[in-house]
Amino acid sequence: MRRILLAEQDSWASGLGWGRARGCALPAAAVLGCLQPAIDPVFLTLLSLATPLRAADHGWVVGMTQTASALAATMVWWLGPRMSMRAALALALGAMVAGLLTPLAQGFGGLLMLRAIYGLGMGAVYARAMGGFAAARPTGAYAIVLLVQLMLATLVSLALPDLAARIGAGRALGLLALVPLAAAVALHFAREGGGHRATPVGNGATPRAGWALALANFWFICATMMVWSLCGALAVQAGHSEGLIGRAVAIGSLAGAATAIAVMRERLRVPLPVTACLVGAALLAPLVLTRPGAGAGFVLAMVLLNIGSTAIIIRCSGLASALGLGPRFRVFVAATHNLGMSAGPALGSGMLWVMPDGGLLLGAGLAVLAGVGAVVIGWRGLRHCAHWPLSRPVFARSGRQKGLD
């Protein structure tokens, strides 16, 4: 396994050419492809200033964007080599046009259509780019992308309101059309230098453990989005101020960044089922700790939520990608991110509609249980993986490390 991954990494780096700048093309495209969900709170606030969009309709905009992203990512996986790189680049350029027209939209239906076009483009970019970048050292690849996405989203969230105050909300939002344009350029350079990494051709036989870990990734992202989508509303109902909510989100983001750095290595120091159980408790923390007069509890809950979601997404995505023997499966692993982000809020809203009292906790709890169960199945299946035998684990034992590095 060590030789396979090192050979893949060497050929990927040398194939890109043009030095280190070209080697950043795939991760840059992946980061830009998943940037939108991280800046949605600021984006939607400015969108309501630039258009007649009501705050009550923000969920529809997010849902349409994420559903389209999930559809595009699934399409990239399903079609595989039948979907040309030109098609992905065309979708990305379509997202750029949709981004330019978004602040000009006056009708709600037209706005939803534009965000669907935007989501299609960015979902296709992320699935292709992440599927290629995760070919070598997949855990580190996902950690790097999530870390850089978090840092870039923080900068954009801080700069965009000030920019809107100077040039207007509509023009500031129009500048976000540069994101899909930059993603298309990055994906194009990756294709020119090493198209075999960016284009999901072929398909290897993936063991059951890989599919189980990909499914676990989906369920944990679902649980995260169920809770995350309603954290603000829960805090407001508990009487917490906007300042406290903002500080809690910022501190949680810093905790998530630190977690990404901590789990960047390919080796596992804690068995994955143990990590999954701890993460499950962390994801449910905001539903338990958000109480009136307990500001510190809400901050702690946001920290736990960010730590847990970051750790499990990186671990499950990295291990599942490493177990896949073909680039097409790595694209599927990336697609589970979009699918989870789309399904999570919808499932959470459905549970609240069916059970207004306790429905969210029940739904998130069931998603966590499904994720833990899939992790256990995947972990047990590692023993039967011919290309990743448990005799050469990705653990660190007794101060002596063995693994992929």
TrEMBL record:
The chain crosses the membrane at residues 21-39, 59-80, 87-105, 141-160, 172-190, 211-238, 244-263, 270-289, 295-317, 360-382. The lineage of its organism: Bacteria, Pseudomonadati, Pseudomonadota, Alphaproteobacteria, Sphingomonadales. The keyword Transmembrane applies. Keywords: Membrane, Transmembrane, Transmembrane helix. The keyword Transit peptide does not apply. InterPro entries: MFS_trans_sf. It comes from the Bacteria. This is MFS transporter.
